[in-house]
UniProtKB/TrEMBL annotation:
Signal peptide: none annotated. The keyword DNA-binding applies. Keywords: DNA-binding, Restriction system. CDD domains: RMtype1_S_EcoEI-TRD1-CR1_like. Residues 266-404 form the Type I restriction modification DNA specificity domain. Belongs to the type-I restriction system S methylase family. Transmembrane segments: none annotated. It holds the Pfam family Methylase_S. This is Type I restriction enzyme S subunit. It comes from the Bacteria.
């Protein structure tokens, strides 16, 4: 159902806040909460007492907390941020602030916690507000937008100043009405979160289906009744009896590693740099690529020009093992961690690309990456990848089949991803409207649907 607006509004006197319900009061945050409370209030505790410990990675973008870590007080009191149950924390450093990292502190060991120094902590004054309501203010788009505008510092070290939180003006209803708004948002955002989780589960299942479809087609073929034989290679298992086994160095007429220096990016450059971040299974995300100028492009292609239908392959980093084809010539060059392959006459380029994306090929590269902090597959290992080599006619059939099947799966993936975006937008809009008084949720707070 649609939610009503309040009966009467007035100008808040705050440009970005606009009109607010007539009975809401404009207050600076420092009047409703204490910022960064002193750890001296736990001075009497035994220093060996264990408390919750929250590094930044333990704080979710959705307000969730991972409370698995604990430390004795004496290990954390000198260099970390103090908080206790009922406090509200928010990340102040970019991009954690913009992403919404922060949350209401609850369930802490002994009611006490310490965490990253990149947190601002607000302790609500019970007569003015609650942790639940304050947390929703901090998660609202309007608060985040104003915080981003106040950031100081450069690049990845930009931070929201404590004074921004201390001095920001907000409109507050009565504590009772705040409780109703917080309860409404708890319930309605939980529903939206459940819908988002369903779509994200679908996206994960589609990715699994996509990989399974690719791997089966390039190692088992399309004929379920074809006689099989042991390939003699553990990663491949059985393959159709009439297929041959080859290695990448024989299936490719050209194997080129990237120049081992970082490109000089140029926003106005004409040429696109293919990085590992731009490649997934059979897909090249051109719109997300960085650019370089002509001189750096010529430097990047000094070993070999990237021709149409050449295969690019990531061999380092968290996103190694993906391959895609180049759609045109004279536009692309290899970024760091990338390789270039050109199919031999005996191997259809599209089929080779699909096989490089298969699980059987990925497992061969894993032998170089086990235990590595930064995964890295050696060129020698890649050159000796063992591949299935069906007759050229079957390679064409398998490629056409995978193009069709993955297109269907990709369409479903795009639809699910779009649904997630819309649901997140709906959640943000709902939070924004509720905590700025643009909707009256008092009637809906006890039940019903938004």
């Amino acid at each position: 159902m649609s939610l009503p607006r309040y009966g009467e509004y007035r100008d808040s006197g705050v440009e970005w806040l606009g009109e607010v319900p007539e009975h809401w009061e404009i207050k600076r945050l420092r009047t409703v909460a204490e910022l960064n409370p002193s750890k001296s209030e736990i001075a009497e505790l035994d220093r060996s007492t264990e408390v919750s410990f929250l590094p930044m990675e333990a704080i979710g973008d959705d307000g969730s907390l991972n409370l698995d870590r604990m430390r004795p007080i004496h290990e954390v009191e000198a260099g970390y941020t103090y908080f206790r149950n009922g406090d509200v924390a928010l990340a102040k450093i970019t991009p954690c602030f913009e992403n919404g990292k922060g949350g209401l502190m609850r369930g802490l060991q002994g009611g006490i916690g310490f965490g990253t120094t990149e947190l601002i902590v607000a302790r609500p004054r019970p007569s003015e507000t609650s942790g639940e309501y304050l947390n929703w203010i901090f998660r609202s788009p309007a608060f985040r937008k104003q915080g981003e505008a106040s950031m100081y510092g450069a690049g990845g070290q930009k931070r929201v100043p404590d004074d921004f939180v201390r001095n920001i003006a907000w409109a507050f209803p009565s504590p009772m009405e705040q409780t109703a708004i917080a309860a409404f948002l708890d319930r309605e955002t939980a529903k939206i979160h459940a819908l988002i989780a369903e779509q994200e589960k679908l996206i994960a299942l589609l990715a699994e289906k996509r990989q399974a479809t690719i791997s089966h087609a390039v190692t088992r073929g399309l004929d379920p009744d074809a006689p099989m034989k042991d390939s003699g290679v553990a990663w491949l298992g059985e393959v159709p009896a009439h297929w041959e086994i080859t290695r990448l160095k024989h299936a490719a007429s050209l194997i080129v590693d990237c120049p081992h220096e970082t490109p000089v990016y140029d926003e106005d450059g004409t040429y696109r740099v293919i990085r590992t971040a731009n490649v997934t299974e059979g897909r090249l995300w051109i719109e997300e690529m960085y650019s370089v100028g002509e001189q750096d492009y010529l430097n990047r292609i000094r070993r070999q020009v990237l021709a149409k239908d050449d295969i690019v392959y990531g061999r380092e980093g968290e996103r190694w093992g993906y391959a895609a084809q180049v759609p045109s010539v004279d536009m692309f060059c290899l970024g760091q961690r990338m390789m270039q392959f050109r199919a031999a006459d005996s191997m259809h380029a599209r089929y080779l690309m699909w096989q490089l994306n298969s699980l059987s090929t990925y497992r061969q590269g894993q032998m170089d990456t086990v235990g590595a902090t930064s995964p890295h597959v050696n060129v020698r290992t890649i050159r000796n990848y063992v591949l299935a080599n069906p007759p050229l006619g079957e390679q064409l059939e398998i490629s056409a089949f995978l193009d069709a099947e993955t297109s269907l799966l990709d369409a479903l993936d795009v639809e699910a991803a779009h649904a997630v975006v819309l649901l997140k937008e709906r959640r943000s809009a709902l939070i924004a409207a509720a905590v700025t008084g643009q909707i009256d949720v008092r009637g809906a707070a006890q039940g019903g649907h938004a």
